[in-house]
Structures are given as structure tokens and as C-alpha cells.
Amino acid sequence: MSRRFSDQPTSMSDLLSTMARRIRKVDLLVIDEIRQMWPSIVGEVVAQHCQPELVKNGVLLVAVPSGAFAQRLLEDHDVIIAGFAPLGSRAPSSLRPLITNTP
To answer: Phi, psi at residue 73, to the nearest 5°?
Structure first.
């Protein structure tokens, strides 16, 4: 599918429709609850370095500073996901670490 660009402005209704389609795939509310639960699930040390960013299509994306932290999250995947069980149907079903290059 190719995108065509135009000098003409896009209508507000088209922009809102596009945004609504994208937001449906991202739960913007549950991430706050996940961030509150995070330290008790992963422990203080991991929580200080690894931050939950968002849940998209049931996948929790977590910013991590290194491959070592990414590996630790993957090793503890099942325990971490089980920790979010109180969220019911809004709980993530998996997680994916994203290595960030922040100093």
C-alpha cells in the first residue's frame, strides 16, 4: 500500500478516525496500574532500571538499559506476567524488552 502525500490539509474527521484506529490497539489506562504494580512484581533493583512503557495488543513493552536486564526479564517472563493477573482481561499476556540507549 503506497501513501500519497498532498499539499491539501487532512480533514479533522479523517485525522480522528486514524487516531482512533491506532488507540484501539493500545491500552492507555492500564499502563498506570502496571507501573504501580511493577516494583512489587520485579523487585526494586529491576524496577529502578526497567520501565514499563505501554501495552499493545497484549504485549507489555519494557524499556531496559542493557541486554543483561532484557535477559533477566525474559527469564522471569512467566512470573512477571502472572503478577499482573489481578488486572484480569486487561493484563498483558507477554512482555518484550526494548533496549534503550540512555546514559
So the answer is: -65, -40
pLDDT at res. 1: 46
- In the prediction, which pLDDT does 9 show? 79
Domain boundaries, the chain: 27-99
E strands in the chain = 51-56, 59-64, 94-99
Classified by CATH at the fold level, domain 27-99 comes out as: GMP Synthetase; Chain A, domain 3 (3.30.300)
Choose among 52, 43, 38: nearest CA to 84. 38
Q: Tens digits of per-residue pLDDT, 56-97?
A: 889 999 999 999 999 999 999 999 999 999 999 999 999 999
Residue 65: strand, helix, or coil = coil
